[in-house]
Amino acid sequence: MGLHRETNRANWDDRAAAHAAEGGLGYGIDRFVADRRLLSDVVEFDRERLGDITGLRTVHLQCHIGTDTLSLARLGARVTGLDFSSVAIEKARVLVERTGDDVDFVESDVYAAADVLGTGTFDLVYTGIGALCWLPSIDRWAATVSALLRPGGRLFIREGHPVLWSMNETIDDDLHLRFPYFEQQEPLEWDSDTTYVATDRPIVATKTYEWNHGMGEIVTALLDHGLRITGLVEHRTVPWEALPGQMVAVEGGEFRLDALDGVAPLTYTLQAEKE
Asked: Which of 105, 114, 58 is nearest to 85 (CA)?
């Protein structure tokens, strides 16, 4: 477990530095400095489902360099971002210093979040795209979410669909399910010097480990830890070109399948409330 976590951390340290680049590459952070009302595409996509979050004490788990985090603050939440990458936290702090957004950032492993931030103190736990696949146990994640939330507090997550994570993106003549849909003890091992946005250099720390979690496993874990599912919407789009050669760009920074549009869910938004 330690090897997997530390290998992934090295990769995300490297990605964070590349993603925070200026001049239009990476996450395009210059846009958030230039336009103090701009929201990230990921947060904008779910803005109606988020509703009014003004004044809510919010923690954004696995916040990366903070573009979604500051977007939640711009919607009125009182936000703390948490990530295990020291480089990501450093870049996030620099970003909000430049933008003037009132956001705190904490470096911590997600499973230790309740120990670091306290239990039962948050109105909203938010998690964005591409987070759960880095965690070996969905049950431990659900326990962490439950510990962080006050009674009546809400979980909000948009994530890549486990069906999408099961597809082999390198085969572009059709949709090919080749990887485990259900959580496995041993992770899938990957080695790539690219990332999901344009960067000015290849990634150096190339190896990563990932775990899939089936939709039933996610829902059951949340129910087991005292949360009630209040919403689950599956989407036909994803905010990066997840299946190259088979997708077309649509508005809002999203991509959908081209000829096979609607054949498979690509992302989902799930909401749950702590009882």
From this structure: 105
Query: What is the side-by-side strand order in the sheet with 237-238?
Result: 237-238, 254-257, 247-250
Task: Read off the CATH number of the domain in which 266 is found.
Answer: 3.40.50.150
Nearest CA-CA partner of 225 in 161, 156, 148 = 148
Range of the domain at 48: 2-274
Digitized pLDDT (tens) for each residue of the chain, 275 residues in all? 599 999 999 999 999 999 999 888 999 999 999 999 999 999 999 999 999 999 999 999 999 999 999 999 999 999 999 999 999 999 999 999 999 999 999 999 999 999 999 999 999 999 999 999 999 999 999 999 999 999 999 999 999 999 999 999 999 999 999 999 999 999 999 999 999 999 999 999 999 999 999 999 999 999 999 999 999 999 999 999 999 999 999 999 999 999 999 999 999 999 999 99
pTM to 2 decimals? Answer: 0.97
Which residues are CB-neighbours of 273 under 8 A, at least 6 positions away?
152, 153, 154, 155, 227, 228, 230
Do the beta carbons of residue 238 and residue 164 sit within 8 Å?
yes
Counted domains in the chain: 1
The tokens describing 67, both together, are 């573009």
Contacts of 36 (CB under 8 A, 6+ apart): 74, 99, 100, 101
